[in-house]
Amino acid sequence: MEDYKKILAISGKPGLFKLVGQMKNGIVAEALSDKKRFPVYMSENTSSLEDISIYTEEGEVPLKEVLEKMHKHFSGKAHAISMKDAKKVTDAFSKILPKYDKERVYTSDIKKVLRWYNTLIEADLLILETKTKKKSDKKEADTTKEATTKKSTAAKKKNPPKKVNTKVQSKKTGAVKTPVKK
User: Where do the domains of the chain lie, and which CATH numbers do they carry?
Assistant: First the structure.
């Protein structure tokens, strides 16, 4: 999966879901935890992880960046923080995102983000900027190389070498004449 646009959070349903298809009146989603598919109608509130941000004292931080910081903090492994102790949860999140807005980001929100992190790690869907950057750089190089090849091929097709007809045959007599160079 290329990005977080196809990973969804659906209000009223725990966990994360992958966008699988579209229907006339909604979408088809697949739970990342048990791979069950079900319809999600337009009346249900859905958010892609790409659109979610965490409030900080300076503004908002996209969830993608928070997940990267969590990956670095937990050394790429799932966390083992007990969700029962609110103090431990908020302390751990403070280490990851020290300037998060404590008035607007509730403990329930932090727990949800921590659960999402574990779900993405287990499903091997955590997207890191360095992986994405390397892939995009490689694609860019391939695209540039391909474009250059296409341009030179197109130039050859547009301007083929001109063939000079050195002999001209007369229609009336059938005699072959060689043109005189000037």
Answer: 1-51 (2.30.30.730), 52-136 (1.10.10.1650)
Q: Which residues, listed in sequence order, are joined to residue 22 by a DSSP beta bridge? A: 27
What DSSP letter does each residue of 110-156 carry, written as one string? HHHHHHHHHHHHHTT-PPPHHHHHHHHHHHHHHHHHHHHHHHHHHHH
Bridge partners, 26 (sequence order): 23, 41
Helices (H), 62-128: 63-73, 86-96, 107-122
Q: Is 0.70 topped by the overall pTM?
A: no
Q: Whose CA is closest to 112, among 58, 47, 59, 28?
A: 47
Instruction: Say if CB 76 and CB 109 are below 8 A apart.
Output: no
Chain segment 131-170, per-residue pLDDT in tens? 545 455 555 555 555 555 555 555 555 555 555 555 555 5
* The pair of three-digit structure tokens given for residue 116, joined into one six-digit string: 């999402």
